[in-house]
């Protein structure tokens, strides 16, 4: 956003939004409601109970919700695009040729099985030929170019203290399990998962031809290396604090952390021979790498590097590897029962590898100019509501309040798709070579990223592909990003009435906007620089209110004996609460002076809250919930719906909830 909309212009924009056709029964999701549930007892069950009963988790999934429904519809569209690109061989444009050939090479499972490990064998051979520890450097560089992350990750990043430029960044990495906690926790479930991981690694090496005894030796060495990396890694809560992630280092200082790794040769192999400085996210992690290199045998390091390559490329290998990978990561970790159909996996691979190419065709068929214009109008209305909310906050003092409004005015709204698409012109893609196709595409994308080091930031870039059902706020660019993939029903529909749209996508827009002022976003100024612009008093008031959310969510159960991690989920929880309130304010402004008819027996206020609740309807396997509780900064669906509503007097009034009922929190939490 460039400027906060004046009240007069805001009114005109809101009137433009009012032009949407009136809702009808078929557009409003009343069939998702559980009429037996009481809205003031459990609104999530009331709003979603009908949908939950009809939509069990599919066998090839770990969870199934409204996001997944839309994601599947988008995937169906992408499949049609890709199949057309495969079949229209004589008339294809160069971009469609590459899309079609990538998809064809993925779908030709018979050819992949027939080739066996021939495509990956040269990479295995490079690792096997290592004769000294210092020689691992070019292998690590090679694996990073292919999209892997052995030992650590090396990328370009926006400089936290100079948001106009990109710098080099080294961060923790190298783990085969989802998070460090899987290696360091000693509860029964964690021990069970680690044993399952060892068994999985053994089976994977056996598939490559290793004897069981050798595979077992390699698996235990790999677990030991990864455990040491995990022990030196920051946990997820610590990584929520940007100040803990910024440590500018000169190359000489980096070398002093790990002299056993040939950094000069590594940077030269990645086209960065003159690199002088970088951000080392967590220096103790690099020191741990040095310890591992010194204390671990060369054979064990070679096993670790081979495993890193194998697990990162498993989707490109013959069926037995893919199935074994699913048996552990899909079945044991997530609770899925069946491997997803190959076409679904190949569509996802095409989106991952050629997202901007596929995104161009997706936008042509789904979004269009009107959808972008109407969404931009809604964003402006919600930004206006947030400006009014900030201006009226009783706990924020004048100088901080003005700085917050200045930051809000400078937020950039990126809606639908980028103004400039990535080019794939120079990347070879063929019909018979899936492994080589992905190697070429991954390497090109990685080098494109590294080549941005030392250059100005491209503020028009999207970091999600266009068909993605998601949205985000980028604190270092001070912008909100809404790919076309999410700007469809049930989140947004031109046929839906304003109340439902504002409760759904409107609250999501508000959610992303408030991220600019949450526990992480508030540490960045209006230009995206890590800078404290809060007075001590205001910071203390914010922390006190934020701590209310930490406690409120932390008392709730995620699954079995596990409680929600209130600190990990703080930013998303405060954004849910604030975004919902801001969208409600925008709706009330929109409805000023207008009639408020009932639709399907519900008032506009009630439809707003139903719109919010019904985008989160989700069934999920307990294994998946357990995993997400460790790594995901979002709370489970029921908490995302019920807790913000329980904090809102506006909800209580809309559904006539009274003190003492479960949906009325005695000590409500609120920041925005």
Q: How do you describe this structure in short?
A:
By secondary structure, this protein is an alpha+beta fold. Helices cover 54% and strands 7% of the residues. It folds into 2 domains: 7-76 and 373-421 and 461-654, 3-Layer(aba) Sandwich (Collagenase (Catalytic Domain)); 134-305, Neutral endopeptidase , domain2 (Neutral endopeptidase, domain 2).
Could you name the key traits of this structure?
single chain, 672 residues, alpha+beta, Collagenase (Catalytic Domain), Neutral endopeptidase, domain 2, 2 domains, 4-stranded mixed sheet, 3-stranded mixed sheet, 7% strand, globular, disordered N terminus
- Total beta-strand segments: 11
Largest sheet: 4 strands, mixed
Q: Which architecture of the largest domain would the CATH scheme give at its second level?
A: 3-Layer(aba) Sandwich
* CATH 4th-level superfamily of the largest domain: Collagenase (Catalytic Domain)
Cα-to-Cα separation, first versus last residue: 19 Å
**Residue share in helices?**
40-55%
Shape: globular
- Multimerization status: single chain
Strand content range? 5-15%
- Uncertain segments of ≥5 residues (pLDDT<50)? 1-27
Question: Could you name the CATH topology of the largest domain?
Answer: Collagenase (Catalytic Domain)
pLDDT averaged residue by residue: 93
Strand order within the widest beta sheet:
2-3-5-4
Helix run count:
27
Q: Using only CA atoms, what is the Rg?
A: 26 Å
Structural class: alpha+beta
Can you tell me the CATH class of the largest domain?
Alpha Beta
Count of the domains: 2
């Amino acid at each position: 956003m460039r400027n906060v909309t004046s009240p007069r212009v805001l009114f005109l924009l809101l009137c433009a939004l009012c032009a949407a056709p009136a809702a009808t029964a078929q557009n409003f999701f009343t069939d998702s409601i559980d009429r037996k549930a009481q809205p003031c007892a459990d609104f999530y069950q009331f709003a979603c109970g009908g949908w939950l009963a009809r939509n069990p988790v599919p066998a090839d999934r770990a969870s199934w919700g409204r996001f997944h429904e839309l994601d599947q519809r988008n995937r169906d569209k992408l499949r049609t695009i890709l199949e057309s690109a495969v079949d229209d061989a004589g008339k294809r444009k160069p971009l469609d040729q590459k899309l079609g050939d990538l998809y064809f090479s993925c779908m030709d499972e018979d050819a992949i099985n027939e080739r066996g490990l021939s495509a990956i064998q040269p990479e295995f051979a490079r690792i096997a030929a290592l004769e000294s520890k210092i020689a691992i450097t070019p292998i690590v560089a090679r694996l990073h170019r292919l999209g892997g992350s052995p030992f650590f990750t090396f990328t370009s990043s926006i400089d936290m203290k100079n948001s106009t430029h990109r710098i080099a960044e080294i961060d923790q990495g190298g783990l085969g399990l989802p998070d460090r906690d899987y290696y360091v926790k000693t509860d029964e479930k964690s021990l069970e998962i680690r044993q399952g991981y060892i068994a999985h690694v053994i089976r994977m090496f056996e598939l490559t031809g290793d004897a069981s005894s050798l595979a077992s030796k390699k698996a235990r060495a790999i677990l030991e290396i990864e455990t040491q990396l995990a022990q030196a890694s920051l946990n997820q809560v610590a990584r929520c604090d940007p100040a803990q992630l910024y440590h500018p280092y000169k190359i000489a200082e980096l070398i002093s952390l790990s002299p056993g790794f040939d950094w000069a040769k590594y940077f030269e192999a990645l086209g960065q021979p003159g690199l002088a400085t970088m951000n080392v996210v967590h220096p103790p992690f690099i020191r741990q790498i040095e310890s591992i290199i010194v204390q671990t045998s060369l054979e064990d390091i070679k096993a670790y590097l081979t495993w890193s390559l194998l697990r990162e490329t498993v989707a490109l290998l013959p069926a037995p590897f893919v199935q074994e990978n699913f048996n552990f990561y899909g079945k044991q970790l997530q609770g899925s029962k069946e491997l997803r159909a190959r076409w679904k996996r190949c569509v996802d691979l095409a989106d991952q590898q050629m997202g901007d190419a596929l995104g161009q065709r997706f936008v042509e068929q789904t979004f269009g100019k009107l959808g972008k214009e109407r969404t931009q109008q809604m964003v402006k209305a919600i930004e206006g509501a947030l400006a009014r909310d900030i201006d009226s906050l009783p706990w924020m003092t004048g100088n901080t309040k003005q700085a917050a409004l200045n930051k809000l005015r400078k937020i950039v709204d990126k809606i639908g798709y980028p103004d400039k698409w990535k080019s794939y012109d120079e990347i070879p893609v063929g019909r018979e070579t899936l492994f080589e196709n992905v190697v070429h595409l991954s390497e090109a994308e990685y080098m494109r990223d590294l080549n941005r080091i030392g250059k100005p930031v491209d503020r028009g870039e999207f970091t999600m592909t266009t068909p993605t059902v998601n949205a985000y706020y980028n604190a270092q660019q001070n912008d909100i990003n809404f790919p076309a993939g999410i700007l469809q029903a049930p989140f947004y529909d031109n046929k839906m009435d304003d109340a439902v749209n504002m409760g759904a996508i409107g609250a999501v827009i508000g959610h992303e906007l408030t991220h600019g002022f949450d526990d992480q976003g508030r540490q960045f100024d209006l230009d995206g620089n890590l800078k404290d612009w809060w007075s001590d008093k205001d910071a203390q008031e914010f922390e006190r209110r934020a701590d209310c959310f930490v406690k409120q969510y932390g008392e709730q159960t995620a699954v079995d004996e596990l409680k929600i991690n209130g600190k990990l989920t703080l930013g998303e929880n405060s954004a849910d609460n604030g975004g919902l309130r801001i969208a409600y304010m925008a709706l009330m402004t929109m409805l000023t002076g207008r009639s408020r008819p009932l639709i399907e027996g519900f008032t506009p206020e009630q439809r707003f809250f139903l719109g919010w609740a019904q985008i989160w309807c989700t069934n999920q396997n307990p294994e998946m919930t357990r995993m997400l509780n460790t790594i995901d900064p979002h709370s489970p669906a029921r908490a995302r719906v019920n807790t913000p509503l329980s904090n809102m007097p506006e909800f209580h009034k809309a559904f006539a909830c009274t003190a003492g009922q479960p949906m009325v929190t005695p000590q409500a939490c609120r920041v925005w």
